[in-house]
Design goal:
The protein is an alpha/beta fold. Helix content is 23%, strand content 29%. The protein is elongated. 44% of the residues are buried. It binds uridine-diphosphate-N-acetylglucosamine and calcium ion.
Length: 452
């Protein structure tokens, strides 16, 4: 099959009014990735070497987004929304280059998996001209019905054009199909718009192909594969299904999730075996975790790299650029951004480390803050290996703490501290004997005088 060339045409011109959003529908995200990007990924995984996006509503925004998630995809604008067949023809120029297989997909059907597409392509390789990826549902309202005659698919009828009998059919069009490249343009051009909606229906190519004696096949995929997103409730439903699939994969690959239903992954989360994830953990995009890490409850992690055997949380926040080396510890209510925490270093309590390096084995005391921002620019804090930063210190960047240096607690450090030095950045303590008692008596008599 790999010898067969394949183009995927992804339709994404619709407005998606039911999302009630300023953002084009297909740019709404699932697992941190626009839903149309999930479709692109599935097409790629099924061997579509070339990709086309048909856009219309929000074309500029779509183009910008596509440059990121599908840089190789060509975009075509469908100026007027005259139906799904008309939309595919907007990409006529690409289709006419002559591909063996054309996959037509909808940008709002994000849970399609590559296997269903691969099965459809196999049917083309066996000689089918049109392959429909169907699914069964007890509640088919709104979907095109697959009309079969003596076991052969002969037509797809849209809900609005169905007879009462046809409406009872539960085998539906998922909206995904594979078409033989050699016949695609001929079939699409034969589609008319004499139907209830006055649109050029892509689904009509089934009847056209079968009427011309071409082989038309229906395959069956699971309901999820065909789940079309029209509103935010369906978006959440798709997110839920995606997360469930991913949790399952992650657990089977050797990761312990104590309460899997409370852990949320991103489309690109990498997580190594023997990692243990406690309940209520969120992974945003760009997280890579090696083996044997412990992620305690209620941690929020994005854009972070975590080496083996690190210990994180509970209630830790790792932001983009957090780079934890082996056995580093980031404890409760700590935030780390754009900073390397080297091997075995500890940042355990109520601390902010941003734009910094914490050297191997260093210990950062509770409440330490790297003051990295003056309201205009960001500055770097460099903390050497084995340094000890006392609790409640402010390290005002740019500043360097040498290897093995000690910082007294409560210090405001504005000047660099050399290796092995001890730095105090606070007023010395003054103790006056008896003064406490004297004050107490003075305050008590003042209060008594007021009451009179
Ligand atoms: C379509 C199918 C229906 C199927 C259902 C599955 C047709 C005629 N009907 O119906 O059989 O059961 O999907 O979800 O194909 N689009 C354009 N330009 C247009 C029209 C649509 O780009 O002119 C895009 C939309 O943005 C969307 C996709 O095509 O991504 C599907 O269009 P939509 O109007 O939602 O089709 P349905 O009525 O759901
Ligand atoms: Ca739809």
């Amino acid at each position: 099959m790999s010898q067969r060339s394949c183009l995927s045409v992804i339709l994404a011109a619709g407005e998606g009014t039911r999302m009630k959003s300023a953002l084009p529908k297909v740019l709404h995200q699932i697992a941190g990735l626009p839903m149309v990007a999930h479709v692109v990924k599935a097409a790629e995984a099924a061997g579509a070497g070339s990709q086309v996006l048909v856009i219309g509503h929000g074309a500029e925004e779509m183009r910008k987004a596509a440059a990121k998630f599908a840089p190789k995809a060509e975009t075509f604008v469908q100026e007027k929304r005259l139906g799904t067949a008309h939309a595919v023809l907007a990409a006529r120029e690409a289709i006419s280059k002559g591909y063996d297989d054309i996959l037509v997909m909808f940008g709002d059907t994000p849970l399609i998996d590559a296997d269903a597409l691969t099965v459809a392509r196999l049917k083309l390789a066996e000689g089918a001209a049109v392959v429909i990826i169907g699914f069964r549902t007890p509640n088919p309202t709104g979907y095109g019905r697959l009309i079969e005659k003596s076991g052969k698919l002969v037509a797809i009828r849209e809900e609005k054009d169905c007879s009462e009998e046809e409406r009872k059919i539960t085998f539906c069009n998922g909206g995904l199909m594979a078409v033989a490249g050699a016949q695609a343009l001929m079939l699409l051009e034969a589609v008319g718009n004499k139907n209830a909606k006055g649109e050029y229906y892509l689904t009509d190519i089934v009847e056209i192909a079968s009427g011309r004696g071409l082989d038309v096949v229906a395959t069956e995929a699971s309901f999820e594969n065909a789940l079309g997103i029209n509103n935010r409730a369906e978006l959440a439903q798709a997110e839920g299904i995606w997360q469930q699939r991913r949790r399952q994969e992650v657990m089977l690959s050797g990761v312990t999730l104590i309460a899997p239903e409370t852990v949320y992954f991103s489309h690109d989360t990498e997580i190594g075996a023997d990692t243990i994830v406690e309940p209520n953990v969120w992974f945003g995009p760009g997280v890579k975790i090696a083996t044997g890490a412990k992620i305690h409850a209620f941690s929020h992690i994005e854009g972070a790299t975590i080496a083996s055997n690190c210990d994180i949380g509970p209630y830790a926040r790792l932001r983009p650029g957090a780079d934890l080396r082996q056995k580093a510890k980031v404890g409760n209510f700590c935030e780390v951004k754009q900073a390397v925490i080297e091997e075995g270093a500890k940042v355990n309590h109520l601390t902010y480390i941003g734009d910094a390096r914490v050297g191997a084995g260093a210990n950062i005391g509770a409440g330490t803050i790297t003051c990295n921002y003056d309201g205009y620019s960001k500055f770097f804090t460099d903390i050497g290996a084995g340094a000890f930063v006392g609790s409640n210190s402010s390290l005002v960047a740019p500043v360097t703490i040498g290897m093995g240096a000690y910082i007294a607690s409560g210090s405001v450090i504005t000047e660099s501290v050399p290796e092995d030095a001890l730095a105090f950045g606070r007023a010395r303590q003054k103790t006056i004997p008896g003064k406490g008692k004297e004050l107490r008596e003075r305050f008590a008599s003042a209060a008594a005088a007021k009451e009179k």
